[in-house]
Amino acid sequence: MPDPLPIAAVQAAPRAIDDPVQDFGSEVEELLRTFPDTRIAVYPELHLYSADDTPQSRNQRLRDSAEPLTGARTRLLAELAGDLGIWLVPGSICERGEDGQLFNTALAFSPRGELAASYRKIFPWRPYEPYDPGDRFVVFDLPGTGRAGLSICYDAWFPEVSRHLAWLGAEVILNLVKTTTCDRAQEIVLARANAITNQVFVVSVNCAGPLGSGRSLIVDPEGTVRVEAVDASPTVLTDVLDLGHVQRVRRYGTAGLNRVWDQFRADDPPLELPLYQGRIDPARWKPPVNG
């Protein structure tokens, strides 16, 4: 049996772009004093990168603040996770790429103070965001518990992201969000739909008001909302995820009926996918079973 995963999804207002990491560390320490059993703490997209200027000056400030993953901010966040002994997903950061690109990059740090995963947002919200797109899907292992996948905000609108994370073995998708607009209602539907169609947990954590529209939620592999924020007020959603529930749902079916990962027989012909110039191959359809 996998270990349970006590999670804290923090719906908080973003921090100013020039706030020191130590101030964020105090925020996380306060969280752990209130919820001491937390094993993984998850924060919204760009939680450490609030720049409330005109779009032109804001984008320039984001570019100016970007660092490579070897930079001081990443190192300090890794030390924070190690000092606190938890898995820490501090939102996403502005990453300067090897050739000067600007990436919106989600980070996951282990309780040993190591950068366990970094994911560059594949689908920037165009035409509004200045980021270059990433080029790969990212999952990481939580030893003894299961596997998590990373996605950022607008990624949730593209079913290919959640499907590939699930196919790579993710049992929970951490969707880091900074939605300030009127489409949060649609994102809530997408969180449930992505959970149902891939039979995974989805944690959609949005930033709080007055900037963000809030309404964060945690959804189980059958689409049931386990816990949710009803408005944009700062709050912490806590839950204990049993990632073994994913394999039970896939074995017995959603609502005891639908086994989407067992759809194909070995002798079914491949299904051509003209949009992708690719195909669904029955021999490659099922995700791995994490042991």
Question: How would you characterize this protein structure?
Answer:
- By secondary structure, the chain is α/β, with parallel strands linked by helices.
- The chain has one domain (5-240): Carbon-nitrogen hydrolase (Nitrilase/N-carbamoyl-D-aminoacid amidohydrolase, 4-Layer Sandwich).
- The protein has 6 helices and 15 strands.
- A 6-stranded mixed beta sheet has the order 7-8-9-10-11-12, covered by helices on one side.
- α1 links the parallel β1 and β2 (40-42).
Please tag this protein with its features.
291 residues, alpha/beta, Nitrilase/N-carbamoyl-D-aminoacid amidohydrolase, six-stranded mixed sheet, four-stranded mixed sheet, 6 helices, 15 strands, 24% helix
Describe the protein's topology.
Elements: E1 5-11, H1 21-34, E2 40-42, H2 55-65, H3 72-84, E3 87-89, E4 92-96, E5 102-109, E6 115-120, E7 139-142, E8 146-152, H4 159-167, E9 172-176, H5 184-198, E10 201-205, E11 217-219, E12 225-228, E13 235-241, H6 244-252, E14 271-273, E15 278-280
Parallel strand pairs: 1-2, 2-3, 8-9, 9-10
Antiparallel strand pairs: 1-13, 4-5, 5-6, 7-8, 10-11, 11-12, 14-15
What's the name of the CATH homologous superfamily? Answer: Carbon-nitrogen hydrolase
Q: What order do the helices and strands follow?
A: EHEHHEEEEEEHEHEEEEHEE
SS-based class = alpha/beta
In the CATH hierarchy, the architecture is: 4-Layer Sandwich
